[in-house]
Amino acid sequence: FFYRSLPFTADCSTMLVFTLFHALLTFQICVSLDTRRLLQQSTTTTAPAPIDAVPQTIEIANELYLLLSAETTVMPYPQAETMLISGKTYWMIPVDQGITPAVSAPPSAPTTTTNVPWRYDPNVPIIYFNVPAPTTATTAPTFSPTLATTATTAPTLSPMTVQPTVIVAQPPSTSNPTLAATTLPPDPGYTYNMFGELCPIMPLGSVQCAEAADYVSDQTGNNQQGFTSCLDTADCCMCSEILCGEQGGDGCIELRVAGLMAAYGNRNIRVYGGERAFAKAKITCSGLESCARSRIVGNSVMELDCGGRSGCQGSTIYIEDPADQFSIYCGATSSCQDMTVSVNFTSTSCDPIELGEIKCLGANACNGMSLTIENNGCRDVVIKSIECRDGSCDYSSWSFFGRQAITIDTCHLPTGALSVPVGSSGLDRCFSGLQELKCSDIMPCMQQTKTITDPRNDFKLVCLDLLACGGSQFTIQVTAAFKPAPIQTINIVCDGRESCKGTNFTVVNHNRVEIEVNVHCTSLGACNGAMFEGSSNVRFTEVICVAVNQCMGCTVNNLPCTTSTTTTLPAGSVPSVPPPNALSQVAPNQAVPSTVYHNNLVPVV
Q1: What contacts 179, CB < 8 A, 6 or more positions away?
Q2: How far apart are the first and last CA of the chain?
Q3: How far is CA 510 from CA 210, 429, 516, 519, in A?
Q4: What is the dihedral of CA 33, 36, 39, 40, to 10 degrees?
Q5: Exposure pattern of 309-333 as b/e (b: 16+ CB <10 Å)?
Q6: I need a labelling partner for 32 at 20 to 30 A (CA). Which of 5, 262, 510, 548 fits?
Q7: Cα 300 vs. chain centroid, distance in angstroms?
Q8: 147 backbone dihedrals φ, ψ, rounded to 5°
Q9: Of 507, 505, 506, nearest to 515 (Cα)?
Q10: What is the DSSP string of 423-434?
Q11: Shortest CA distance to 397 belongs to which of 371, 415, 434, 376?
């Protein structure tokens, strides 16, 4: 081009000048290209190290981006943009100027993030907070603007606001069971079910549900009508639904979950009992973690049997209008630990209903359990018994409420039966409206003080073993509050060796209706040193001592239990007894009971 532009008449000196100019221009172009190539090589060899170590920022065309390695980080949000640097791909998260990203490290990470590998954790949020805009170069590597040409399509996401923003991975939704993109890979040998819970991977053909689209009911597979069974390991863990019975149709007789993790984490289990007596449903979770972390909804259920170790641990169970004698059995280690049970009565039938037993028998069986019984129907509800062993009901919660009454017949509490389990709430109902309080082990109610308020008619306080109630102070108090039926009879039974030795029993009656108290001392030393006291309108009808050595030092209203003489009370006159802390002030001439038995002989009148 230069030579062609020279005039035809140009001399040699002119051509020499243009030749030197051409050589100099060529040299400058080569040096510029080499310098740019060296600069790019230097940049690409140093940049990936800090980016892979911890999240870094990059400034491109006056825009600030957070870079996360795509090799160790899942997509932070849908349609995230990427950048290619030295053959490696990085996620680009746009950040407004004046906002510096800070990433909270996983809990197990060291306190310093220098040269510490970082991996995205859906449980650890990425937090952006406001700081002054940087005025000097940051410690992150600054790339040549030419790197922008190596990126993919420029980010089209709208800029983030300068207000604090938290990006947190959302848990899987039950309405849309598709796993979120941020779910971590499952443990080896496990896969996720549609509820985001881990299920063991089993050989094809060995389980009823091999994938999320499968379901099981009493109409599928080898199940018979009214019976749905999950008997093998992870048999129904992957099911989208587990169904027994048909709502408004043929009722379920039993849902039986017996295999290891057979229905683990399944949150769509439905059990419909029928109206017929033989079709009252039973839910059985007898395998290890068989129904753990599940969700069960049912009606007309007669029994919830969590007999497997951790069988119902962490599960949520809702029962509406259970059948008569509905019971809950937690008989193995941690079988009902952290379980949430809600029982709701809505029936318009006004016949009273009696529930069965609630038993927490295994180690930690009902620790942390939450039980709610809500009676919004027309019928009164009576719970036959609640039983807790040592360490089986700690930190549990018991709630009883509603428009209609809920009463408890009997409580069998652990050692220290007159106090509720450690950290628990709601079991104080065990000492109000009772039909029976039984201390049946060795020393379960020994040396304790307890007031039992408004028990039901024919209430029984039973002490059945060695020193079962020894040295304690019991006050049975009948208030003036309205009661559906008057309280007329109270029974105190001391049927174990020295079971009531040195025990003080006080009956206080604030009603006009007279209360008759019957005392039975039927074992060696059962009532030795015992004291029985009654207020006005309290009459000790009988004190039975089968042998003299069963009631040595025993007194009734400050007179010996085995006295051979009695004082006849005037008509309508009943001695008055002061509060328990003033029993020592009882006058020595107070009346003896109207009838006293001696050595199982005829009464002395």
Answers
A1: 172, 192, 194, 196
A2: 146
A3: 67, 21, 14, 21
A4: -100
A5: bbbbbbbbbebebbbeebbbbbbbb
A6: 5
A7: 24
A8: -65, -25
A9: 507
A10: T-BSGGGGGBS-
A11: 371
Cβ–Cβ under 8 Å, residues 73 and 119: yes
Alpha helix stretches (DSSP H) within 47-159: 48-53
CB 289 within 8 A of CB 265: no
pLDDT at 559 over 80: yes
Nearest residue to 550 (alpha-carbon basis) of 586, 516, 597, 594: 597
Q: Give bridge partners of residue 296 from the DSSP assignment.
A: 269, 317
Evaluate whether 520 touches 491 at the Cβ level (below 8 Å): yes
Kindly report the pTM of this predicted structure: 0.56
The first and second tokens of residue 501, run together, are: 């030795």
Confidence of residue 83 (pLDDT cuts 50, 70, 90): confident
Bridge partner list, 438: 462
Mean pLDDT of 344-359: 90
Element (H, E) at 399: strand 397-402
DSSP state of 27: H
The single residue listed with the structure tokens 């025990």 is 503
pLDDT digits (tens, 9 = 90+) for 461-477: 999 888 889 999 999 99
Task: Indicate the range of 41-50, 93-102, 494-503 predicted with least confidence.
Answer: 41-50
The Cα angle at residue 494 between residues 492 and 495, in degrees rounded to 5: 130
